[in-house]
């Protein structure tokens, strides 16, 4: 950015203005109800924790599936697993989402993913893997509860599961076990992508739920930053 | 997913309906005729259905024999299977069975190639093979070929892999087939991480044969393929390779209570696979006599309830089974022979004393005739020290004897059926501890005696009693010292345990020392030692011995025949102050022993003393022996000092080593001398080194010799030497040589001459200095005394007394006081100069001085006193006879030398002018050529030129025959005065 002397004076004036107005910022003086901010922060922290936990779990589980699923460059097309909620979304679409929709999508996705994950746990062969999966399911259940808490705090209703849409991801008799492994791979991958997306979602929501900070930012922008 | 379509060619409906009736009639006619005629007849089988089981890759064939009229007929069938086309026959199998009328026959075949991949064809023919009839020597006609295929449709750009989810056993073979969809080519496949290659069967089918497949994971073995033109797409299948089911091992059953049979076995590996492909193998127990079958609740054991008390014999079959295999083991036994007795109960130990204890126990009995065999064990510190078997009916007891006092024991017992031994019961055990008893063994004691301040210092040592000897915890050691010389005197000491020695200070007498050990129960037998007056003072010869890696062999000569025994003692740490005395007691007939110890170290000298114990318990030192387990080369060289250092020799000397610190016996010393171009002594060994250096090696074979003279050295030369001891293991370390330089040959001589000479000269100088004045007076006085001069003697000899002018004879012309100075103020400023005082010490005796000291007079007057003497002597001129000496002093300070000279000149002129000159022998000439008058001022304002001075001197009264030497003396003196003035 090309800053001129005038800009520097502008910045200084702006900073002074900000400092002058700081005592008047309601957020800094607020002492009553903390609002949804802390619960959003907690939810954000939980997504980051689950990301970390999933990294370890996925490593173990993909080794259990064997090659090529545990190979680092394995990137198959998403053929099966159509019922899995897709985390990837167009950036413009994502930006256009409102808070309610954003939270609803998160809630629905994790509801489905949790269900699939429990199915995965039932099939796991080793006790250690079952333990890890059960621990992760518990954490994911916690995330779901946190999202529900945020939605309640913001006054959004929880999405009701439509009858017949309850995911039933038990492999049929004719289901190829190779495709089953592929579905497991995609389940873990989607889960990871959802956690990334959720982290962004909650980060955005967190910033949005801090109006005083936002007004200060706008004020700074008005001065030509 | 592929859809399966079973295609079988079925007979036409009408023929199905018509055929039996028609054929039945015809055949019955034919058969009856054949039977009658005894001719062979042909029955052509008819295939009813051909079905497939795709997952099992199995073809099921159903057929009938339509023309069969007999109720039963033994027949043989031949079935042919061809692949791809009918001419490519891949399987021929004969199948014999008894065929009943109207029976539907079944046969199946498993294809090694998945049925989805290739089409198969099947046909059958038959032959009567019944002994009741004439043998048919030819097969019937073949049935028509039936096509067997599983139709699958492959979408473009996709690949189907068969079989899918195949379950197979480790080590088996499998053929994988790939069905290519349209537009798909160049497919490469991997088995887990290894590439696999197949053969192309046709344009859209290829086969991959895998032999001897191995188990990878419970989640199966992945086969995945990629096509070159669709690299993102991945196709695959999972082979579920199961481990081979193992037969259960060590299958056995037993009962403890005749109510339950506990059967157990080793199950072998778990063959379970995930995704419900295969569960863990099941175990089933079947008893043939009762006909009961039970699925086992554990994979390695099962409890079988005995429901029928009367059943004695059991025949068990244990079967394990998984999806692929079944294995069985059988076991038949009599129940009474498989009784695993319960552990004995109520085990108690009674009447325990120091040496014995009684154990009792009870067993579970099954009747009066039931005898048990029981095994009893006694353990001490986990080691079985006693074992015994006894027969038991209901209860029993056993007495343990020969126990050790104060010892922990564990007694245990187990039992088994005595009649039909099957297994020991579990152990029933009890721990107990025997009480203490008095120590049973006398202490092994020894002593060390040394004199100190006229008394004995006796250090007593004893070894701790073994646990078996102590019989309890030793509380203290009692020492009684009896004075043998004064029997009434005895002293008692008590040393608390765990001390293993004590020190006593005794008067020089004979003593008898009694030592006992006490525990809580009693006292040990006593150990006795006798100390005589000379204990500790014995002097014997020390002998050298050679040790081995393990220790030392010590032998000695007994001195008396009635020795009670011998004691060998030594110090473990001979170099330390605390030597850790060790000793070994030996029997009376022993004359040698081996001393071994893990503490012996190489290069450490050990000193052994051998004592003979007399019958009176008195120990007499027999021998001293010293040696090393291993001799080592010396670790350090001695510190060498150089003595008698001369230009061509010096003596090297060094101190002796402490013998206890020698790493081996020193056998001698090597002296090395190194220099350039040196000649070795004939006794030395010469070695030439680089750079013209020569090394001489001298060997001193006497270790007591501690000096060596190095001779025949060159003066002012560099030498280097090293003295190192040598032992049997080698010589000392190769340290740096010490450098020396021999001095100059003459330096000593010079020293001898120069030093006394210097001293003499110094003495002379001091003496001269001290007597300098005297010498000066003697040799060259400042004012030559004419009377003392040799000239005088010369004159006298010539009897010419007038040659030397007497001052009294001179009549001064004029005497004028130039400057009058007050008497008290005449102190000369330079009077402090001792030299000047010395000079003035010799004024002419006639010079009047106020205070008797001449002060600085000579500066001004010593040249012309001769002339002024008369003036001072005569007071007729009225001149103030002030201290003349003062005047020049002031002058010296206030006037320059020219003025001073002027003043002097004036004085002389006056004196010359006023004194009456009567001496004829002297020629007096007026000193001033020009008339000066008596004007004092003109004198001051007209200083004479230096030329006047010379003129004046020229005009001095000089005897006609005065030698020029005298003149020159005056001249020089004058010059001195001037110089002195100038200096002031």
Tally of distinct domains of chain A: 1
What string, H for helix and E for strand, traces the elements of chain A in order?
HHHHHHHH
Beta fraction of chain B: 35-45%
Largest beta-sheet characterization of chain B: 6 strands, antiparallel
Q: How many β strands of chain B by DSSP? A: 53
Chain pair with largest interface: A-B, 23 and 27 residues
Helix segment tally of chain B: 13
Helix tally of chain A?
8
* Rounded mean pLDDT score of chain A: 76
Structural class of chain B: alpha+beta
CATH architecture of chain A: Up-down Bundle
- The average pLDDT value of chain B, as a whole number, equals 77
Structural shape of chain A: globular
Structural class estimated from helices and strands of chain A: mainly alpha
Number of strands of chain A: 0
| Approximate helicity band of chain A | 55-70%
Binned, the helix content of chain B reads: 10-25%
Give the amount of beta strand of chain A, in percent: under 5%
The main pleated sheet of chain A reads as:
none
Rounded to the nearest angstrom, the radius of gyration of chain A is 22 Å
CATH fold name of chain A, please? Growth Hormone, Chain: A
Family (chain A): Belongs to the IL-6 superfamily.
Keywords (chain A): Cytokine, Glycoprotein, Secreted, Signal
Function (chain A): In complex with CRLF1, forms a heterodimeric neurotropic cytokine that plays a crucial role during neuronal development. Also stimulates B-cells. Binds to and activates the ILST/gp130 receptor.
GO molecular function, one term (chain A): ciliary neurotrophic factor receptor binding
